[in-house]
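DATA SHEET
Item: assembly model
Revision: 1
Owner: S.N.
Input lines:
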Amino acid sequence: MSDTFTLDGREIPFEPGQTIMQAALAAGVYIPRLCYHPEFKPHGSCKLCTVKVNGRHTASCTYKAAPGLQVESNTEELNTERRTLVQMLFVEGNHFCPSCEKSGDCQLQATAYELGMMSPHFDHFFPDRPVDASHPDLLLEFNRCILCSLCVRASRDVDRKNVFALAGRGIHSHLIVNAASGRLADTNVALEDKAVQVCPVGVILKKRRGFAVPIGQRTYDAAPISGHVQGSASLTEE
Amino acid sequence: MDVVEKKKLKVATTSLAGCFGCHMSFLDIDERLFELVQRVEFDRSPLTDIKEVGPCDIGIIEGGLCNAENVHVLKEFRRQCKVLIAMGACAVNGGLPAQRNHLPLTDILSEVYLSSPGLGNGLIPNDPELPLPLNQVHPIHEVVKVDVFIPGCPPSGDAIWKVLTDLLSGQDPRLGHGLIHYD
């Protein structure tokens, strides 16, 4: 018999070494997240998956499950904090969903829907982030980058190419391309690279692929993002 | 016994830096418009052609702020309306017009009016009747307090109807999966 901890009043079994996030996913419980991806080492940076463990805030993607932990996740307090984080991501970049090819397939957008984000709330930064269209088959749309570092991890750990990196600190953090010119065309990135597939938002896009799947038939049109975790209820379901 | 007729709520609508697409979507509530006019009457709106907004219960704003007149109209709406609704992507986050925000306004004006191909003797319009453009396009919540947001480009007729009927029945408006959309 495996050990268990308590998540929102429910007993969750876990295997030794699993994080709270991994155990929750295996048990069919959705915890909002943007920088966590089951295939990669956790980064713990987006803070969307923050839960309360025995009353203290911590990222559930990096916190190891342990017997008897009391974990809160789907609470008004935590979901309000998550909504605020998502609102800050929206105003820091330029996120214009109507003109984004990723709309309907975008995890940032789907997470904001799940959290009931009706407005950006804060004043917009409207940053100036020129796109990199140098590559013949790929577009880099920096306006939508949320610094999840999934492309960085995929390129480093799976593709073994180190095409992407995060540079700068704090509000100056930004995605860069590992080439002397700084241009994607001057790297060995390839269409089939994991780094190209893994972007949760609309930064790394294949050129000439517009509207291959019509609006209304995309990933999060049929079911909200919580519904993509097998067995999970939505955050707002009573 | 006399039946006391319920007082109708007053609703005003306008389009600022928008494309009137949200107003078209508003008309997409179709035959429910009949039900709506049983319960509300329209003040300033493209539907009535009234030019100045009077005291209202609900004000609905489509579009963001791209010039001085937009700001003036928005402030009038805020002054006159008890509940102010931002309807659609442009009112909520600036939308498509805000995609000019990383370009200097002078560059835009000179490209549009002076250096575009096919323009002879172009002039940047400077009639004093024209409202001055703002340096950047802003969503309306950056200038006035907004009570209710309906995202979408445009929000569907069903989403607009849900918000209005929630409001009319005294509930906090809520859009669930399928009705909440940013595109």
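QC remark: The helical segments of chain A are 20-26, 76-92, 107-114, 150-158, 194-197, 219-222.
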